[in-house]
Design brief:
The chain is extended. Helix 4 runs antiparallel to helix 5 and helix 17 runs antiparallel to helix 18. It has 29 helices and 33 strands. The chain starts with a helix and ends with a strand. A hairpin with a 2-residue loop joins strand 21 and strand 22. The protein has a 6-stranded antiparallel barrel. A 6-stranded antiparallel beta barrel has the order 14-15-32-17-16-33. The chain is an alpha+beta fold and 993 residues long.
Length: 993
């Protein structure tokens, strides 16, 4: 009876509360799913088993039924949490987050509220939103610092810190965990992560000590091994490879760590490679590959071993083998593992380097045919004389190879070697400056060699002072730009002088500097207008003002300043009429009419392609002949207006030419091609595949050729024609005329008769042609040379001048072949192409001053404080300096010289000077005036010197550094009367004497 009553009671409860059954089923399904998932994890399976997935879905469905059918049940928050947990376990994070947020929003009194606050942060972190996760977890810890989920919150915050490499905050968060929960079971794990953060913060000793402690106290074998492994890693990062190797070998010997053997072998191999025992290292890598290649558990270690073998092959220079190994490593690497990404990058880099080296080899073989059989890509251009097109290819290829060596492979020595060879191949100019700057940059930023980088930057500023790389070098040394101010800066300074300082004279100097330095710049018409305004308002020179305004309307008719200038011209002309009762034609003015040319622009000899200050590069017509020393004029006109009359803009003298030699050639393609008598006329013969021919002319789709003695036409699409080599010339502008305009096309006309233009030899200083067949005096002569030839190649010679001479470009001279008795015979006539004066080093202007043409001459330009100068010579109280391309004189007292880098030679600049054993110590002896010493070091106001093998000290104030360079003169040989051998001893006497 009692049993029946109990059954009736249970039935009543069950039938009255059906939702308890529903939720009970949900909880049971969830519990069974969890058991299945945890069993899979014990077997190393991280993916949720399919049976568990079905059970999680049943738990979610039952919980949802409870919520639908019994919305007022007190189990709603329990159901929401269970659904959220089921979604979180299956990585459906957005759905899980919404369930936790429902509890937090609608059930503030729920017992699950703290758990949901924690679960929201944890799930948000798993979803990848670390910023929001951190915010949620820190809010949770502020509200529930002693909660059962607080320890895990601390650990999760530490993991966030480490993931974003904020190791200092990681140390703080893990330390908070240890302080708050000193006896927690995860204490050793937190200490491990603190030690790992110490290691990344370069606090290696603290990291080492903590890893050793964790290795002794770790509660699990995995943590114990990992901590002991990191002890070896600390030693390895401190380059204590022997101790690290001993640690790793101790780990690999323990049978309890057999599961970690591949990882340990990788560390052992790395240590041996660092110790130079590369064959042993390769043996370990091969062991990993052979033993574990079929075990998917060790895919990461196997791929890393293959990758490291590729890196060793790369370091040994075997790029083919390295590429093969990188490809294999990438294939073996697990998805998302770093090896796959890095191996692909290394393979790509190798193939890029291989392609660039092949391009370089091709350029060298083309430019240096005598060495075509050699595979030595380091060979110098001094071994041959490539043409300009080949030279450009060589320089470009060297830059590419150097940059890949530097940035992709970190092979700094190889990069520096190619930059040096690129500088040599460029032979001066922008590309040479770029290479020199690159070497200095590598010294500063890669090798951290500030002394060598300073020398390199100084070289750039001295040798390539007119290039943008000189400006970059100055910025690198925190010095003023050696090129002086830019056009914009000059205009701003001029405007400040004019309106702020009320100094119209200095303003006028700056405005004129703009016109001289940037005649084709946007500020030229504005500066010309400013000069007119200054003449009109400050100097009351209306004639000069009118001249400047008229020049604007004539030279810059489409500029913004032109309209204002026209109004000024009209006003001043009317003013002159009112004053004088006549028109203003009496005003002296440079008229553009006198520069008009009665020529057909189509008859020009070429066009200007580049203008750099006083240097122009000209593209000449194919049928135009030109030579060094030749002269001509530049003219301007609007190429869109064929009716406009050409205007003479400047005169020039040719410094160098590149004229293609021999006929232009072509070859047939892989099929037979018809040779026609005319364009599409009858067939003369067949041009067989890959047969060479001479190109006679081109007309649209037809090319006229000479093939095996027959002349005719072939269709362009069936042949390959060598690129057209365009004759070019480099010239110096001798005089600019008022017509020089910034935005106009510039054409070229060469001076002289037909015989002059086609003559093989340039004119001498008297204007007559020199013949190589008419030798100069060849009998022995008593001479006093002005200089010695350092090198010559073809028709170029570099002369080191023995004493400073007043030479100019275009000056002539004679080369003498010197005999052992000091006598010489005339060997060749030369002409000066470029002059490089010696310099005393770099200095900075300490107070504002002026650059003068001579020690007491006219002012060339104002010089602000801080600008860098190259000191050339001392003349009394004045110092000759170079600022950009300008040379002149400033007071010696305003220039502070930058001490040269030791070692350097210096001269005693006193009547006598004490030579001391130590700085300020006992005197050894007196050094007479002009004694030469080698400065080997600097100690405050004292210099460490070496003289006659003796090391001692002198006062720095009385040692004057010797010139940093020699006076070099670059010449071209006009005619030779003797055959010159490469090792000939040659001296020079210049005509100026």
């Amino acid at each position: 009876m009692k049993r029946l009553a109990l059954l009736l009671l249970l039935a009543t409860i069950t039938l009255g509360c059906p939702y308890y059954n529903t939720f009970y089923n949900a909880k049971r399904a969830f519990s069974e799913a969890e058991d299945l998932r945890k069993d899979a994890l014990k077997q190393g399976i991280t993916q949720v088993p399919q049976q568990a997935v079905l059970l999680y879905e049943r738990a979610i469905e039952n919980s949802a039924l409870l919520m639908r059918d019994h919305p007022t049940s007190d189990l709603i928050d329990d159901a929401l949490v269970l659904i959220g947990d089921a979604f979180e376990i299956q990585a459906e994070y957005p759905k899980a987050i919404r369930k936790y947020e429902e509890v937090l929003a609608n059930y503030p009194d729920s017992k699950w509220f703290p758990y949901c606050a924690f679960a929201l942060g944890k799930t948000t972190l798993n979803s990848g939103d670390t910023l929001r996760a951190e915010e949620s977890l820190r809010d949770f810890l502020r509200q529930y610092p002693a909660s059962e989920w607080a320890p895990e919150s601390h650990m999760l915050l530490g993991s966030i810190d480490i993931s974003r490499q904020d190791y200092s905050l990681a140390v703080a968060d893990y330390t908070d965990f240890l302080t708050s929960f000193p006896k927690h079971k995860r204490r050793a794990e937190a200490q491990y992560f603190i030690a790992e953060s110490y290691l990344e913060l370069d606090r290696h000793l603290e990291a080492l000590e903590l890893f050793e402690r964790v290795g002794q106290d770790a509660p699990t074998r995995d943590l114990e091994y990992q901590a002991k492994y990191m002890v070896g890693e600390c030693l390895r990062r401190d380059t204590e490879y022997e101790r690290a190797l001993e640690t790793f070998e101790g780990l690999v010997a323990k049978s309890s760590y057999i599961i970690y053997r591949p990882k340990t072998l990788l560390a052992i191999a790395s240590c041996k490679a660092s110790l130079g025992r590369k064959e042993e290292a390769i043996g370990h890598y091969e062991t990993i590959n052979e033993r574990y290649e079929r075990d998917r558990q060790y895919e990461a270690e196997v791929s890393e071993a293959i990758f490291e073998m590729g890196r060793l092959s790369e370091q040994a220079g075997d790029l083919v083998r390295a590429d093969e190994l990188y490809e294999s490593a990438g294939k073996r690497s697990p998805r998302q593992f770093w090896v796959a990404r890095e191996a692909g990058k290394r393979s790509s880099d190798i193939r890029l380097l291989t392609r660039y080296r092949e391009d370089l080899e091709g350029a060298l073989s083309e430019g240096l045919p005598a060495l075509a059989d050699s595979t030595d890509e380091s060979r110098s251009i001094s071994e041959s004389a490539p043409d300009s097109a080949s030279l450009a290819k060589i320089v470009s290829s060297r830059f590419k190879v150097a940059e890949v060596f530097l940035f992709q492979f970190g092979m700094i020595d190889s990069a520096l070697a190619h930059y040096s060879l690129a500088e040599e191949a460029a032979g001066g100019g922008l590309q040479a400056a770029k290479a020199a700057y690159a070497k200095a940059w590598v010294m500063e930023h890669v090798l951290l060699d500030t002394s060598s980088s300073r020398v390199g930057y100084t070289t750039v500023m001295s040798q390539y002072d007119t290039t943008v790389y000189a400006s970059a070098a100055a910025r690198a040394m925190e010095m003023q730009d050696p090129l002086g101010f830019s056009e914009t800066e000059l205009f701003a300074l001029a405007t400040d002088y004019l309106f702020e300082a009320q100094n119209s004279d200095s303003a006028a100097v700056y405005y004129q500097t703009i016109i001289d330095r940037f005649p084709d710049g946007s500020y030229a018409p504005k500066s010309l207008y400013a000069l007119g305004w200054i003449a009109e308002t400050h100097e009351e020179d209306l004639s000069a003002a009118l001249m400047n305004y008229r020049r604007i309307t004539a030279l810059f008719p489409r500029s913004e300043a032109s309209e204002a200038a026209r109004l000024k011209v009209k006003y001043l002309e009317e003013l002159f009429n009112d004053i004088n009762g006549t028109d203003s034609s009496f005003v002296e003015i440079e008229s553009v009419n006198e520069f008009l040319l009665s020529i057909d622009p189509e008859d020009r000899d070429g066009e200007v392609t580049e203008v750099i200050r006083d240097r122009v590069v000209m593209k000449l017509n194919q049928d135009t002949s030109a030579q060094r020393g030749g002269r001509g004029i530049l003219f301007i006109m609007d190429r869109t207006d064929s009716t406009e009359i050409p205007i003479r803009a400047a005169s020039f003298r040719i410094l160098d030419t590149v004229i293609p030699e021999g006929p232009r050639m072509g070859t047939n393609t892989a099929v037979n091609t018809n040779l026609y008598a005319g364009k599409g006329d009858r067939t003369i013969t067949m041009v067989t595949p890959r047969r060479p021919f001479e190109v006679l002319g081109e007309d649209g789709e037809w090319i006229q050729i000479r093939f095996e003695g027959m002349e005719g036409y072939v269709n362009r699409q069936f042949v390959n024609v060598d690129p057209l080599v365009i004759p070019t010339a480099t010239a110096t502008i001798e005089e600019r005329f008022p017509a020089w305009t910034p935005d106009e096309w510039i054409g070229v006309l060469l001076d002289g008769s037909e015989s002059m233009l086609n003559d093989d030899s340039p004119p001498d200083s008297a204007g007559t042609a020199l013949s190589a067949n008419e030798p100069e005096e060849s009998v022995p002569l008593e001479i006093t040379p002005d200089g010695d030839v350092l090198s010559f190649e073809g028709d170029r010679a570099v002369v080191k001048v023995r004493s400073t001479l007043s030479l100019s470009e275009g000056d002539g001279g004679v080369l003498y072949l010197m005999d052992s008795d000091g006598r010489g015979r005339t060997a060749a006539r030369i002409r000066v192409a470029q002059i490089r004066l010696p310099d005393l080093g770099m200095g900075t202007v300490t107070v504002a001053t002026e650059l003068r043409s001579t020690p007491d001459g006219e002012v060339l330009m104002p010089i602000p404080k801080g600008i860098a100068v190259v000191a050339l010579a001392e003349e009394g109280s004045m110092l000759k300096v170079r600022i950009g391309s300008n040379e002149g004189y400033v007071p010696s007292t305003v220039v502070r010289m930058i001490p040269p880098d030791v070692p350097y030679r210096g001269t005693v600049d006193a009547t006598s000077l004490n030579l001391r054993e130590t700085p300020g110590g006992p005197v050894i002896r007196l050094l007479p005036s002009n004694s030469s010493v080698q400065v080997t070091g600097i100690q405050g106001n004292w210099l460490a010197v070496e003289i006659e093998g003796q090391k001692a000290y002198v006062a720095a104030l009385y040692i004057k550094p010797d010139p940093m360079s020699d006076q070099l003169v670059y010449c071209y040989i006009e005619s030779a009367s003797l055959e010159l051998e490469p090792d000939a001893q040659l001296s020079v006497v210049f005509d100026v004497k």
